[in-house]
Amino acid sequence: MGTTHEQFNVGGMSCSFCAESIKKAYSRTDGVEDVDVSLAHEEVLVQYDDDRLSEVEVKDTLRDLGYTIRDPDKAKRYEQQQAELADGKRRLLIAGGASIVVAALMGWMILVMGRFESASPAMDLVAFGLALGTMFGPGRYIKQKAFQSLRRGIFNQHVLLEAGAFAGLLGGLLGLFVFPSFPTVHFFAVSVFITTYHILSEYTSLIVRTRASQAVQNLLDLQPDTARRVSDDGDVEEVPLDDLDVGDYVRVKPGENIPVDGEVVEGKSTVDESVATGESIPEEKAKGDGVIGGSVNETGTLLIKVTATGEDAFLNQVAREIEEARAMKPGIIQLADRVLKYFVPGVLTIAALSFLFWVVAPLAWGAAPNVQRGAFAALAVLVLGYPCALGMATPLALIRGGGKAADRGILMRSGDAFQIFPDVDHIVLDKTGTITDGEPAVSEVVAFGADEVDVLTTAASAEAFSEHPLADAILEAADEQGFEYGDPDAFDSVTGKGVRVTVASDDVLVGKPGWLSDEGIDLSKGDADIERLQGRGLTVAGVVRGGDLIGLIGIGDEVKSDAAATVQRMTEVGITPVMITGDNERTANAVAEEVSIDRVMADVLPDEKREEIGRLQDEGYRVAMVGDGINDAPALTQADIGIAIGAGTDIAIESADIVLMGDRLGGVMDAYEIGKESYRKTRQNLATAFAFNGIGVAAATTGLVHPVFAMLAMVLSVSAVLANSFAGQLLSGEGVNTKFALEERTDGERGDSQVTAD
């Protein structure tokens, strides 16, 4: 017994003010030691003393606040999110219908009957029924959140909304039974409208989140959760990974992910370990070599002895790093929430003071207390104090920016991405698969006493039967240039070194310079070029025919075509680019020089990447991280903004705030520009909303503001926010259709797929 950590995926969070409310509720719960809330990932991590608090009580705190705890299973969680979207749509349809009816009643009274006051008891009762039905029907969940927040002394947007809604209801009841001059229908209408506006605001936020999850769901294929366990008798059985123990044997076929950390006991293969090391060139594996869970077995079948399971396994260590990084990630409060922190208690205070003023002040000049005017003033302040446009300002800007980003193949997963990106001053880029293509390719051919075509065709003929990824690079280069080459007459592969073949009666060797030297080949004429190519970070293969070195082939991970231009765009706007990689320093510096990055961090392990991000943050910088692999996931989570390359691994995508569909690096700066513009729109929307509310609240304190004018102010403020958010788009046609096609993904982990999201 002692300290326990519980992590929940939570439904019902629509803005970071919800996150702050959850934090405050847990901070006031006896036994809770620490809590972290991630709005972007909809997660709550609670650290508590299990001697004083049970898991059920921890969960009940969330449920009491009106939030749901989703199933830990991803497929079921996705279904729950779809159900939440359906519930939100149903609430909006019901509340929207009530708003239309009550608006028609108001219009009939004003335009046809020419009056603001109560027209008939029947109309009053209809409006009363609509107000009750909306508030306690589709709006009931808001009351639960408001009550539980208020009970804990938390003043948030739900408390403010319910203050306005109940003020409208109370004003209508006063008109029915106490003050005949009160505009009964209009007060009841206020309750309906502000509840509907809030439901609409939350629904728009839910749509954004659900659409993002749908797109991510289409990108992600869950890792296989079984392995082929081989018994002592040689029998093969499919078992869950959780059933494996240290010392068990598993068989992994070509093209499959290695499910566990282990040691090769039988077979030879090349293994892509870039998920852990960042190295794009696969490693040769044979008996006695270690392998890492999550790596890709490429060429041969391996029998592996399990050496680590559970918390000791590499993937679980990364998962723990991600959880810790998420818990330590700097907290972010949306601009609207910072204002609401003071706005909510301010409105409630002004309403109370307005009532007291009109009850007490008349005594100073010898008049009787004006209870009716005081009540009207207090109610009007509460009605006008609920900023409907404020509730729409951030979601509308997010939808606008999200649609624009989607048209460019960018998935913005959270509102935080819009707010923080404009303040980012350092962008840390992983090398393999981010700055580079992530696949080996022929970069240079050097010929000695022959031409480059002869060198490449000889090497291609020698490698025609090889399954090594470097051989694939040579064959692909020959094919792309249209060179013709034949098959070898004899073929012998020397694991991890090269091939020995016969081509057109000539003995040919293609392989590492060290191996060629061991075979007695004189490499002296190629020494300078070997050193030069290796200095560029390339893997060098020598081509020997008839005992004579005829050429060298430099193979490396090619820099993406738009990498240098993207780095230049960063520096032009004052952002410092930093390259971080698990590759060796020589390779890292060569790539950095090619794209004009001055600061390089090489030979960095996954947990060290996260630490480097943390150091930059400790120095006061806002940091974005761009990566694509499992080894990048902790750093993506730690960064203020995590950006995943959509052609990368599942866990990197899940850890990110922004996903770039496909592998185009230029999307990073596109996302920056869209985020900057969207945040500017958000600030404009909030300024507009608060201008209406500020003027409205000040006027309402006089007790002379009619509810119909309050409703007009609400309509005008929302209309102004809508116009500011979408007018430019509608005129240009940009981003109106948010249907986007995700680029074809060809990585070996998930296979080819084409995804279209609406």
From TrEMBL:
Keyword annotations from UniProtKB, A to Z: ATP-binding, Cell membrane, Membrane, Metal-binding, Nucleotide-binding, Translocase, Transmembrane, Transmembrane helix
Q: Where in the cell is it found?
A: Cell membrane
Q: Which GO terms describe its biological process?
A: copper ion homeostasis
- Which top-level group of life is the source organism from? Archaea
UniProt-listed Gene3D superfamilies: 3.30.70.100, Calcium-transporting ATPase, cytoplasmic domain N, Calcium-transporting ATPase, cytoplasmic transduction domain A, HAD superfamily/HAD-like
Where do transmembrane segments lie in this chain? 92-113, 119-138, 159-179, 185-208, 342-368, 374-399, 686-705, 711-731
PROSITE patterns listed in its UniProt record: ATPASE_E1_E2 (PS00154), HMA_2 (PS50846)
Q: Name one Pfam family in it.
A: E1-E2_ATPase
Topology in the lipid bilayer: Multi-pass membrane protein
| One Gene Ontology cellular component | plasma membrane
The answer on whether this UniProt entry bears the keyword Membrane reads: yes
- Which family, according to the similarity comment? Belongs to the cation transport ATPase (P-type) (TC 3.A.3) family. Type IB subfamily.
What is the protein name given in its UniProt record?
A: Cation-translocating P-type ATPase
Origin species, per record, is Haloarcula nitratireducens
